[in-house]
Amino acid sequence: MNLRAVRAIVRKDLAAVVQSKAVLIPLIVVPLVFLLVLPVVASFAPQLANVPGSSDLGALLERMPASFQERFAGLDEAQTIVTLLLVYLFAPMYLIIPLMVASVIAADTFAGEKERRTLEALLFTPTTDGDLLLGKLASGFLPALAIAWGGFALYAVVANAAAWRVMGALFFPTPMWWVLALWVAPAVAAVGLGATVLVSARVNTFQEAYQIGGVVVLPILVLVVGQATGVLVLSTPVVAGVGAFFWAVAAGLLTYGARTFRRGEVLARS
Amino acid sequence: MRTHALTRAFGTNRAVDALDLHVEVGEIVGLLGHNGAGKTTTVRLLAGVLTPTSGSARVFGLDPVADGVAVRRRVGVSTETPAVDDRLTGRFGLETYAELQGVAPERVRARVADLLDAFDLSEAADRRVATYSKGMRQRLALARALLHDPELLFLDEPTAGLDPVAARAVVDRVRVLRGEGRSVVLCTHDLVQAQALCDRVVVLEHGRVVAAGAPAALAADLGAGLRVRVVGAAPAGVDVAARLTAVSGWRDVAADATGGTGTGAGDGATGPRPFALEGVARDADAVADAVAALVAVGARLHAVERDLPTLEDVYFALHGKHAGERSRFAPPARAAAEEEAS
Q1: How many CB atoms lie within 10 A of CB A50?
Q2: Nearest residue of chain B to residue A123 (CA atoms)
Q3: Starting at the edge strand that comes first in sequence, how are the strands of the sheet with B13-22 ordered?
Q4: Which site among A7, A115, A125, A263 would you substitute to test the B interface, given the most B Cβ atoms closer than 10 Å to its Cβ?
Q5: Contact residues for B304 (Cβ-Cβ < 8 A; gap 6+)
Q6: pLDDT of residue B338
Q7: Poorest-confidence range of B101-105, B159-163, B261-265, B275-279?
Q8: Mean pLDDT estimate for chain B
């Protein structure tokens, strides 16, 4: 493994990403919406819930299993609403961030390079197919991890600050969120990478790769809907299991991608 | 570098078909051919980027498939499109590729600075490539191909789309590279450039070699005899063309199609009449006999020129196209074909 070459690929790809508005804007806007705007809005949810006809959250909680409702024991109504939103309902949405970052960058560095016709020069360097693949994967994975973990820290600060007047104490992060950030978020990023790499090998433009690769958001939507309907209730063990599932999917996608990634095939298809 | 029956097929299409090719140290070899003739695929095969369907290749004695990394460490490739990232600066791009090419870390900055200077890109080095002209991008791509001081260079259309000044700069640079003892494989459509630069050329058609050799040798093989142009003035009433045709060893005598003023055939007017003729003489003695014969009838000769067939003539003769556009230098076989067609 030529780590120097891998580092060079990562450095080049990230330098290029930073210069591309089409890639950079979603990488900034989406995390800010999920991690800054939503928790601030959610901190006002108790007031909104008092508006006649706006008691959906209370109804939602009533639909949840008794074991889940027990987690809110000792909290008043406002605290319950804030906790339900910031700790449970927003948890799956947080996973969209590493998935999106990894997918956008991978689409840009694989299919985007083909589209810009800059990939060929890279293929003529004295690197192995493994070096190239690892460099490209790291280009997507490292920023996804950095933004996911940085976002987790930001979310913790914003959630505690915004909800302080309701909660009156530091309530975040919970053990479930630690598992979500440290175990599940990297797995989701890896799934996004694996899917986008496979798609990018078969298409020639950034948009195609990003849009087709975007189907991997579906499992996360299942989590969102599952929890909102009470079918799936997130807890630390459940989140750990979800993480294991995503890691297994990622391992399958990346193994298949590594086996099929051949520079000659990439050239022949471009 | 040597190939033996090298073949690469994409589905049913053979992009390279049983190619036998060799390049010696310090040689510039031109790969000529239409789009899709197999030039770029050949380069990709030799750099170990594509795997052959059958046949074999050796570059520095190494198999590009099994030893692709080792081969690519010793070859430099400038691709048909410059393949430079618009979003990066020229310097950053070169430094990145220096790392990828394995230039020693302590030499990266100096090597990049040297090449930027050599290719007249120092002033623009810290600007994004998006602001570069086409010529600057081409030079940047060429500089990138040289970062690791390769012994063998594959240059795929290095002057495509460049203005004459920029193209000349690239050609001059290639000459310098040969002077440094490097081998160069030049894929080009530019036949004049190939004739000027290449020690040997290989003409490809549908992935197969249709001709190979030194440009001058190919041209000499193109048609028997010397193509000669005779310009002068003859007394009225002297049919110079007929006199020339009558000289032993001459054939295909006709008015010069590129601006001749006549054949000297009389039309009743008095005084010397200018003529400009071309024809094919068997050898130099036949040319001397013609000069003597024309002088004997009172003609004054202003020029007797020998036109050598160019690589372009060879190329078009091989491909059998654009015959009408090349009538002045048309080889006998093609001239006959034209006559037949007319």
Answers
A1: 12
A2: B49
A3: B13-22, B2-10, B54-58
A4: A125
A5: B228, B229, B230, B231, B287, B291
A6: 36
A7: B261-265
A8: 84
